[in-house]
């Protein structure tokens, strides 16, 4: 009988392995020496050792899941327990027990990491959903809002997954936000289409009125009517682009027909009125030179009347010089009026009465101050003397000016 620390071969060729539970038959060897039998069954043991070492390495150096490790351990344990091999099978069982402990720890760690990852995923997707709900409720910039909603959908797809119930609940909110935004956008553009249709109808009416006026020869009233139509056009809003361009082209064409006709008539009239402008330029030059040299307002007014009659008789002015020449003549009239007002103010009884009252008031004040000054001198009050002398000097100066003004009014 040939023996080994972990097994033996009986004389009849039966091979046994020794375990903590006793000996167990693992095979029979009839083809050679007993040592060859033990060597053969030790190789089977070594193969089991290699599998255990490989599993230990994977659990130590890779991210093998705890569940997968436990499954591999269970399979190896069955192989060890039923192994037809010679070796320290109990040691292999203990190593598998140690592996089981590490696998259980790995399961706990991975579960915690998974829970943490799901929590982070939930936070990320809750933020995405909250942003989508805000866009759905608040955004009125539809192009930007639509682009942002698409970005959020892409962010959702790329974000890590949370647990299934959370995913379903959050996606339900996300989908509702997207649908809400789409409904608001559709409602807005439907209302906008209706509004643009109303604007188009209003501008059709404006254009019809403009075209009806295009042949009018009532230049002033029609020009004012076109200004009113333009104001209505601007305040009515905008139709769709195609209608807006088409209607504006019609409106402008009608307006141009009227104003081109009016400008042609006015240009012809202005040419006829050029002789009036030459006459009024001469009248203006004579009036400026002559009236500015007259110092008596009454004589200036009398001479101005002659120039005013000549101005009216000269007739209407062309438009391009009308404002300039009329403004220059009005300035001459204004200068004469101001001279008359100044003369009236200088010679009016009320002005003389006010000037006399000022002279009398200052004379009375001077008399009172002279009496006070005399008393201060009698008392030898130097401070009062200086005060009264200064006050007298000021009032005597004022009196001289007031007497001069009264003399001019007289």
SSE arrangement:
Blueprint (H helix, E strand, L loop, with lengths): L1 E3 L2 E3 L4 E6 L2 E7 L5 H28 L4 H16 L7 H50 L3 H17 L5 H50 L5 H17 L5 H51 L5 H17 L5 H29 L1 H31 L2 H28 L1
Distance between the terminal alpha carbons, to the nearest Å? 169 Å
* Principal-axes shape call: elongated
Largest sheet: 4 strands, antiparallel
Mean pLDDT: 83
The value of Rg in angstroms is 59 Å
Count of separate DSSP helical elements: 11
- The structural class is mainly alpha
Our estimate of the beta-strand percent is under 5%
Order of helices and strands: EEEEHHHHHHHHHHH
Q: What topology, given as strand order, has the largest sheet?
A: 1-2-3-4
Polypeptide structure, described:
There is one protein chain. The chain has 410 residues and is mainly alpha-helical. It has 4 domains: 2-114, no CATH class; 115-193, no CATH class; 269-347, no CATH class; 349-409. It has 11 helices and 4 strands, in the order ββββααααααααααα. A 4-stranded antiparallel β-sheet has the order 1-2-3-4, with helices on one face. Strand 3 and strand 4 form a beta hairpin. Helix 2 runs antiparallel to helix 3 (89-138), helix 4 (142-158) packs antiparallel against helix 5 and helix 5 (164-213) packs antiparallel against helix 6 (219-235). It is elongated and about 170 Å long.
């Amino acid at each position: 009988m040939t023996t080994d620390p972990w097994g033996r071969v009986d004389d009849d060729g039966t091979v046994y392995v020794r375990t903590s539970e006793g000996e167990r038959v693992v095979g029979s060897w009839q083809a050679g020496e007993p040592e060859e039998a033990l060597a053969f069954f030790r190789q089977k043991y070594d193969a089991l050792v290699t599998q255990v070492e490989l599993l230990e390495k994977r659990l130590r150096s890779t991210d093998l899941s705890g569940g997968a490790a436990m499954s591999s351990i269970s399979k190896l344990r069955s192989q060890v327990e039923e192994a037809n091999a010679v070796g320290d099978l109990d040691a292999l069982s203990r190593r598998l027990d140690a592996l089981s402990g590490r696998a259980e720890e790995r399961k706990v760690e991975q579960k915690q990491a998974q829970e943490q990852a799901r929590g982070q995923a939930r936070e990320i997707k809750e933020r995405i959903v909250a942003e989508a709900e805000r866009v759905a409720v608040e955004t009125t910039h539809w192009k930007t809002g639509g682009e942002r909603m698409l970005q959020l959908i892409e962010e959702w797809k790329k974000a890590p997954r949370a647990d299934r119930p959370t995913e379903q609940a959050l996606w339900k909110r996300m989908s509702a936000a997207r649908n809400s935004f789409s409904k608001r956008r559709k409602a807005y553009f439907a209302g906008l289409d209706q509004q643009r249709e109303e604007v188009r109808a209003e501008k059709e009416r404006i254009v019809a009125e403009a075209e009806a006026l295009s042949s009018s020869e009532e230049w002033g009233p029609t020009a004012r009517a076109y200004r009113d139509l333009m104001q209505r056009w601007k305040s009515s809003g905008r139709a769709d682009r195609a209608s807006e361009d088409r209607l504006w082209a019609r409106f402008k064409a009608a307006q141009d027909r009227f104003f081109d006709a009016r400008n042609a008539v006015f240009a012809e009239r202005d040419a006829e009125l050029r002789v009036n402008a030459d006459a009024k330029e001469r009248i203006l030059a004579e009036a400026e030179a002559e009236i500015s040299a007259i110092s008596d307002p009454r004589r200036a007014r009398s001479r101005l009347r002659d120039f005013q009659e000549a101005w009216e008789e000269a007739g209407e002015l062309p438009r391009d010089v009308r404002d300039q020449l009329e403004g220059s003549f009005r300035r001459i009239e204004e200068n004469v009026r101001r001279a008359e007002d100044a003369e009236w103010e200088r010679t009016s009884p009320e002005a003389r009465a006010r000037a006399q009252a000022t002279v009398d008031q200052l004379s009375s004040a001077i008399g009172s101050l002279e009496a006070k000054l005399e008393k201060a001198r009698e008392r030898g009050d130097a401070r009062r003397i200086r005060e009264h002398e200064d006050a007298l000097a000021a009032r005597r100066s004022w009196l001289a000016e007031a007497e001069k003004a009264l003399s001019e009014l007289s």
